[in-house]
């Protein structure tokens, strides 16, 4: 990966941009935060949300239980999955179309987020045994959340404290409940709709309001770029959902949104967990570090697959592991030292090289 020199203007601008980014807790978790804030002012709404969230609770089987954490004062990790199947589509096997691993550290007020290409070639794990080597999204078809969580934990050597799986019906309905979202469409595209009708959705290039079907078409199209750009596009759509949800006129729709989310989600988070997660973001803004693997494509068994470059994998794995153990004191002292050395002497690049950005 290319590195930014710590004494360069580019590095300074890069760091400032990072600190201005909004926290994105995966696929739809930011919306939960918004709803929870609104719930503080409406006991009836809170009760509705609590019922819906509790109804979506599903624990998973693990060879060994993950260590319990308190999100208010301990780093936590999340695995977010978006699946593109329902009773209408009736696909014989369901695979995870979107996979995001994220860590949240309330001590350093940092979040690390990694979008994992769904065609990444990994060992699929079940109960400590390799089932087979396959695309990572196949883990969901083999054993749903249980196998997907075990596969991610073994591959990245990180814990998964919480998971949340969303059906794309939630994606469609929430956007429609909000009255659409405003997005920049990069090029004119024709795409299938959620019922797989070819050419049903046509989007013209330019800034416009998209309904649920149109936003889903933009989120999942593979006609205009690669998986990396597609992941970034999906994050922009998530941000647009957050922005619309924060508008005052959206408050009246929170009850129906909560019902939509609850009926199209499975998670091992209770309401108390989500409340604790929301509290971590109410006191101070978080910085976001978004990680992208360097990868190459190859073909095996007539499948188009993704191979992660070893150096990229090691660097990002270390960043994720570090984010789950770092304390505010260590982080702040290290950051302060790096800034001081950068400002006082341009000849100390080697001494401050640890401040280079590797993402």
From TrEMBL:
Positions with biased composition (Polar residues): 342-359
Annotated spans, Disordered: 321-359
The Cell envelope-related transcriptional attenuator domain, residue ranges: 95-245
Gene3D superfamilies registered for this protein in UniProt: LCP protein
Record flagged with keyword Transmembrane: yes
InterPro entries referenced in this protein's UniProt entry, alphabetically: LytR/CpsA/Psr_CW_biosynth, LytR_CpsA_psr
Top-level taxon: Bacteria
One Pfam family here: LytR_cpsA_psr
Keywords: Membrane, Transmembrane, Transmembrane helix
Stretches with biased composition (Basic and acidic residues): 325-341
NCBIfam families: lytR_cpsA_psr (TIGR00350)
PANTHER family, A to Z: POLYISOPRENYL-TEICHOIC ACID--PEPTIDOGLYCAN TEICHOIC ACID TRANSFERASE TAGT, POLYISOPRENYL-TEICHOIC ACID--PEPTIDOGLYCAN TEICHOIC ACID TRANSFERASE TAGU
Family: Belongs to the LytR/CpsA/Psr (LCP) family.
Record-given protein name: Transcriptional attenuator, LytR family
Species this chain originates from: Alkalibacterium pelagium
């Amino acid at each position: 990966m290319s590195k930014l020199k710590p004494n360069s203007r580019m590095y300074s601008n890069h760091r400032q941009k990072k600190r201005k980014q909004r926290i994105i807790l995966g696929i739809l978790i930011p919306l939960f935060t918004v709803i929870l804030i609104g719930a503080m002012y409406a006991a009836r709404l809170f009760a509705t949300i609590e019922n819906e969230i509790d109804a979506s609770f599903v624990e998973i089987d693990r060879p060994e239980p993950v260590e319990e954490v308190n999100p208010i004062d301990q780093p936590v990790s999340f695995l977010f999955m978006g699946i593109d199947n329902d009773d209408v589509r009736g696909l014989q096997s369901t695979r995870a179309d979107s996979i995001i691993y994220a860590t949240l550290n309330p001590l350093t007020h940092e979040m690390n987020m990694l979008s994992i290409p769904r065609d990444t070639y990994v060992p699929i794990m079940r109960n400590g045994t390799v089932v087979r080597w396959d695309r990572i999204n196949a883990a969901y078809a083999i054993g749903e959340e249980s196998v997907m969580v075990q596969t991610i934990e073994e591959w990245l050597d990180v814990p998964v404290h919480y998971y949340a799986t969303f059906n794309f019906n939630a994606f469609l309905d929430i956007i429609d409940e909000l009255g659409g979202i405003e997005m920049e469409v990069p090029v004119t595209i024709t795409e299938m709709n959620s019922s797989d009708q070819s050419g049903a959705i046509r989007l013209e290039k330019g800034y416009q309001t998209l309904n649920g079907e149109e936003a889903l078409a933009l989120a999942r199209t593979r006609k205009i770029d690669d998986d990396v750009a597609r992941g970034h596009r999906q994050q922009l759509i998530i941000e647009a959902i957050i922005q619309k949800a924060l508008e005052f006129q959206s408050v009246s729709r929170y009850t129906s949104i909560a019902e939509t989310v609850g009926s199209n989600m499975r998670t091992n988070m209770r309401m108390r967990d989500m409340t604790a997660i929301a509290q971590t973001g109410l006191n101070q803004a978080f910085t976001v570090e978004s990680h992208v693997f360097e990868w190459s494509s190859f073909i095996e068994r007539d499948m188009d697959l993704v191979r992660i470059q070893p150096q990229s994998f090691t660097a990002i794995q270390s960043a994720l592991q570090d984010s789950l153990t770092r304390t505010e004191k260590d982080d702040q002292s290290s950051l302060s030292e790096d800034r001081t050395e950068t400002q006082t002497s341009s000849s100390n690049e080697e001494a401050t090289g640890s401040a280079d950005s590797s993402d």
